[in-house]
Design goal:
Blueprint: E1 6-11, E2 14-19, H1 30-44, E3 51-56, E4 61-63, H2 68-71, H3 76-94, E5 100-104, E6 107-109, H4 111-118, E7 121-125, E8 129-131, H5 145-153, H6 155-164, E9 168-169, H7 170-175, E10 181-183, H8 188-200, H9 204-217, H10 222-236, H11 240-251
């Protein structure tokens, strides 16, 4: 595996991971899947990482999905292994105990859109194009797309996009709630950094518990969701960070949170 297939940059609590296969529109082969999975597991236990940005190299593509040239060489059992691997990876990103921002800097098709869906927040370039195009290849989304897309944009619109395999541009993606914000291409990464920096100012335990409460609460009825929220809140009460936040407010200074 090439050492630079996935680039990693860390500064001020923010980790930026860049899919770096621009010649094939940052498509996922096995090597890139394994490299990204290794970084996700590393960050899970890295207290210096407060927020994460995932983007693609260049301005042409975020991720065009599976590397179809590799896929064409795989026997059925290896295709099953690929789907198992990418599905588990995206679930790990969704459940990562840090907020994750997708910087959708261009084409995001199939697994590229599914990667964005697994992130917490999606910021897109004005030139971005997104879609779950798998039915055009006589398959279906296999890395969470049939489940995450309707939960995000609603059942009817998700069925329309999945059944037709239609791509949507950045403005339509914004209109239907597929992305949070749209920026000019040259500004996208800076805007991702700004949002990540703002997130990173929060208490790490609080951010982890807020993400946990939202993700798990949405899959239940309201009463159960409220109980999940209460339990998540209780986790923050005995922390040093909560006391630091109160002291900083009282002393009119910026808090220094340590994730304790």
């Amino acid at each position: 595996m090439s050492d630079d297939i996935l680039l990693s940059e860390h500064a001020d609590g923010v980790e930026i991971l860049t899919l770096n296969r621009p010649k094939v529109m940052n498509a996922f082969n096995f090597a890139l899947l394994h490299a990204l999975a290794a970084q996700v597991e590393r960050m899970r236990f890295d207290r210096d990482v407060r927020a994460v940005i995932i983007t693609g190299a260049g301005q042409r593509a975020f991720c065009s999905g599976a590397d179809l040239k590799e896929r064409a060489t795989l026997p059925p059992e290896k295709v099953r292994e690929y789907i198992f691997t990418i599905r588990n990876l995206f679930t790990a990103i969704e459940q990562l105990n840090k907020p994750v921002i997708a910087g959708v800097n261009g084409v995001a098709l199939g697994g590229g859109t599914e990667l964005a869906l697994a992130c917490d927040i999606r910021l897109a370039s004005a030139t971005a194009s997104m879609g779950l195009t798998e039915t055009r290849l006589a398959i279906i989304p296999g890395a969470g797309g049939t489940q995450r897309l309707p939960r995000l944009i609603g059942r009817g619109k998700a069925k329309e996009l999945i059944f037709t395999g239609r791509r949507v541009g950045a403005e339509e993606a914004l209109q239907i709630g597929l992305v949070n914000h749209v920026y000019e291409p040259d500004a996208l990464l800076d805007e991702c950094r700004k949002m990540a920096a703002l997130i990173a100012e929060g208490g790490p335990v609080a951010l982890e518990q807020a993400k946990y409460a939202i993700n798990h609460g949405l899959e239940t009825d309201l009463a159960t969701g409220l109980a999940i929220e209460s339990n998540a809140y209780w986790v923050t009460i005995p922390t040093k960070d909560r006391l630091e936040g109160l002291a900083a407010f009282r002393e009119k200074r910026k808090p220094v949170y340590r994730g304790e």
